[in-house]
User: Which sequence fits this backbone?
């Protein structure tokens, strides 16, 4: 068979030849090369002449490729090459592994893998440390910028304050010069007279309070026991949180130092106004108790919370007895706001009171409450100290509160009820005698009224 045009191919059946042609079938040859193979007595020849090549296969020899594959020498050479390649790869692997073990300074591949894990972990930690360092540096730069800004604002405020002070001084001088020396003197005298009148009233209030405390409650020291309902924190089968009764005791300040505040608190205890009130605020520096307001009038008819209504009525009871607050914010330097002391809130003070968790002698002492008009002169009244049951209060300190940035900052999520507040000291004999005499008189009057009622003539 044969292909024409640009090339030709031919196969002879018996000792023939095959030829390929490129360009023409009769190109002249410039070089000749003869290769011959002899397998099994047959002859094979391959000739190349320029662009024309020929390959001849004898009819008795078979295929050259199949002959090579059947040759054992060829197979032996292939096996030797394979083993040489495998041996070279083994030596290369051992050399590489030994070099790696030497660099890592370990004796086995297991140790090498562990050390590689350690190095990777160290690298990650280093990257994290570098990232944190960059973040810290950025924050530090930001803080420095804020400090510089605050310094500029502070300098500006000082400048404005100095200007305002100067304006005030000039205004006062102009006003004084316009008023005249006589008018200024008159104003100073009137202010001194008013202050003196206030001192007279305060001294009279303290004197009468001390007299009444000694006559009604004794000379002291006075001790008040406060029982609170500590919630367990877990609901029972009925969906309620059971409570346990625990107590603490406070000793009131000497009446020689704080007669008015002690008298007011003893009156509140005597009328049982604190029974059923709550600890409701647990701040970082104080824990506070008092009657709570509740505007139940806003509730729709039929939906009034009776418990909250009762709490609101408790505040009204303080107001009914005119015991909702002090007459003036009494304070003594010998009874400061140190830890475990008790003070009234606000101005002039009460009815709410708080227990100092820390030393608040500066913040709650004279000049510490700048939000009040007379904050520089006055202070929160400190009238008692805790002498027993601190462990009960420490349990209250641990109760959950609302976050500092919320509307009800540091308010207890579950207020703790004050079950009972009682005076533990025995009243003076004169008070007992007077009380018994009054009771006997009342019984006698009731008996006389009953007897007289029987002798009243009946209408026809």
Assistant:
């Amino acid at each position: 068979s044969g292909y024409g045009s640009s090339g030709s191919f031919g196969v002879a059946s018996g000792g023939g030849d095959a030829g390929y042609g490129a360009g023409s079938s009769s190109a002249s040859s410039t070089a000749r090369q003869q290769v011959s193979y002899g397998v099994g007595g047959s002859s094979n020849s391959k000739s190349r002449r320029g662009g024309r090549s020929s390959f001849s296969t004898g009819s008795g020899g078979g295929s050259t490729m199949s002959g090579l594959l059947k040759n054992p020498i060829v197979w032996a050479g292939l096996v030797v090459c394979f083993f040489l390649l495998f041996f070279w790869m083994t030596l290369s692997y051992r050399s590489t592994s030994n070099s790696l073990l030497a660099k890592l300074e370990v004796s086995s591949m297991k140790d090498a893998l562990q050390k590689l894990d350690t190095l990777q972990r160290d690298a990650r930690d280093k990257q994290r440390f570098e990232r944190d360092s960059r973040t810290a540096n950025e924050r530090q730069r930001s803080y420095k910028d804020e400090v510089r800004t605050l310094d500029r604002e502070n300098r500006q405020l000082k400048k404005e304050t100095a200007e305002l002070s100067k304006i005030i001084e000039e205004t006062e001088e102009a006003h004084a010069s316009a008023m005249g020396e006589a008018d200024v003197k008159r104003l100073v005298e009137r202010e001194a007279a008013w202050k003196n009148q206030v001192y007279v009233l305060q001294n009279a209030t303290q004197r009468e309070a001390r007299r009444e405390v000694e006559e009604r409650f004794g000379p002291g020291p006075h001790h008040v026991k406060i029982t609170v309902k500590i919630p367990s924190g877990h609901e029972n089968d009925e969906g309620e949180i059971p409570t346990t009764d625990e107590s603490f005791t406070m000793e009131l300040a000497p009446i020689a130092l704080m007669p008015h505040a002690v008298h007011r608190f003893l009156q509140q205890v005597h009328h049982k106004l604190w029974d059923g009130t709550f600890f409701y605020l647990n701040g970082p520096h104080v824990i506070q108790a008092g009657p709570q307001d509740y505007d139940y009038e806003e509730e729709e008819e039929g939906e009034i919370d009776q418990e909250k209504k009762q709490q609101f009525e408790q505040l009204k009871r303080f107001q009914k007895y005119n015991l909702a607050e002090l007459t003036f914010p009494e304070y003594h330097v010998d009874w400061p706001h140190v830890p475990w002391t008790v003070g009234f809130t606000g101005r002039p003070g009460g009815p709410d009171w708080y227990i100092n968790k820390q030393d608040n002698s500066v913040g709650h002492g004279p000049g510490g409450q700048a939000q009040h008009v007379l904050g520089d002169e006055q202070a929160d009244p400190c009238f008692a100290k805790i002498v027993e049951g601190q462990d009960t209060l420490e349990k209250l300190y641990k109760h959950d509160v609302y976050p500092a940035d919320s509307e009800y900052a540091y308010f207890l999520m579950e207020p703790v009820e004050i079950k009972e507040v009682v005076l533990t000291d025995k009243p003076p004999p004169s008070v007992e005698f007077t009380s018994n005499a009054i009771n006997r008189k009342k019984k006698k009057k009731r008996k006389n009224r009953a007897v007289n009622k029987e002798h009243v003539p009946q209408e026809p």
Remarks:
- Residues 130 and 269 are 64 Å apart (CA to CA).
- The chain is about 45% helix and 20% strand.
- The helical segments are 64-69, 72-104, 109-179, 181-216, 259-270, 306-320, 390-397, 429-454.
